[in-house]
Design a protein that fits this description.
Layout (H helix, E strand, L loop, with lengths): L1 H20 L10 H29 L8 H16 L6 H6 L10
Length: 106
């Protein structure tokens, strides 16, 4: 029973992240097709974000729950700047680097 309760909170956490961080609490359009597209794209991006966080956790040999998806999301901008300057080419290595610790934990 305790395991099911813990899983319930993981689902609640996912909905909270998608609504608050990724902006799904606001719909960009009133058309059914537009809403479906927004929901699908947001959840797809969330899945990519979770995979990135999981890969960073594996790289650091940490449990996944020690990685902040919000900090990974916010750090994507900084990675893109470093990438454009030629200072980074792998987001997993970038977020796992000690000098970028602020970009992965929260």
């Amino acid at each position: 029973m305790a395991d099911l309760y813990r899983r319930r909170w993981r689902v609640e956490e996912a909905f909270y992240t998608v609504k608050r961080l990724l902006g799904l609490s606001y719909l960009w359009t009133g058309s059914i097709n537009g809403v479906k597209l927004q929901v699908w794209a947001t959840w797809l991006f969330y899945a990519v974000l979770v995979d990135l966080g999981d890969a960073v956790a594996d790289e650091l040999a940490l449990p996944f729950d020690r990685i902040s998806l919000e900090m990974i999301f916010r750090g994507l901008y900084h990675f893109s700047v470093a990438y454009d300057k030629g200072n980074a080419d792998d987001p997993i290595k970038y977020f796992a680097a000690p000098e970028n610790q602020d970009a992965r934990s929260g």
